[in-house]
Amino acid sequence: MTRRAGELVQWNNKGGYGFVRDDAGHDFYVHISKVYGGVRPRIGDRLTFEIAAGRKGRPSAVDVRVTQAVRSPASTLQKVLGSKSPSVSRYKLGLRVAAATTITLLILLAISSEHAPLWLSMLYVCMGLASALLYRFDKIYAMANRWRVSEANLHVVDLSFGIIGGLCAQEFYRHKTVKPRFVATTWAIALFHTLLLAALAFGWLEVILPV
To answer: Which terminal residue of the chain, N or C, has fewer Cβ atoms less than 10 Å from its own Cβ?
Structure first.
């Protein structure tokens, strides 16, 4: 059986399937189970493969081997740290830094006025770092076409006192700043923490949360 060469033009990483286009311009279905060594290919990878009858008798790629990967981990990380999204203005991104700064100042005010315990600041620091790391890994995974951190998990960590790190990571990595639903939820979480900390700073929650 003659082997063919081509390029992976579509890939669903979650489902583990996609399409490879041979050098003659024909597309063939490929499943992760048919990729040699269980390696997950990326869009743009050069592949060699054979053709066999798949589901419903349609020709599919089998014995698929990656001959040339499109990216290396080093270049992916460089793109993550240096990339900028042209569709998001710096003004909008600057609002995230402003929100994170406002929340930080409210924490300091609440603690200095003895309306909040010191451990609250440590909680925001620890969860903020955790949130920032999750955004960083999710951006790297997105660039490498690998498994992603779910949006629900990102929101849960942000809500659980990680919002400062989440906002800063969104701006620094230019990540999760376009999708309307995700952006709206992020700002709702930021507003919740801003109001909560403002109430603490001005003593309105002293009875509910004694120091």
So the answer is: N
Q: Does 3.40.47.10 match the CATH number of domain 4-68? A: no
Q: Where are the domains of the chain?
A: 4-68, 75-201
Q: Take residue 132 and report the two structure tokens written for it.
A: 């920032």
Range in 121-125, 143-147, 148-152, 188-192 with the lowest mean pLDDT:
143-147
Looking at the predicted structure, is the pLDDT value of residue 82 above 60? no
Dist CA 174 CA 88 (whole Å): 8
Range 74-90 average pLDDT: 46
As a whole number of angstroms, the distance between CA 96 and CA 107 comes to 17
The count of other CB atoms within 10 Å of the CB of residue 205 is: 17
pTM listed for this prediction:
0.57
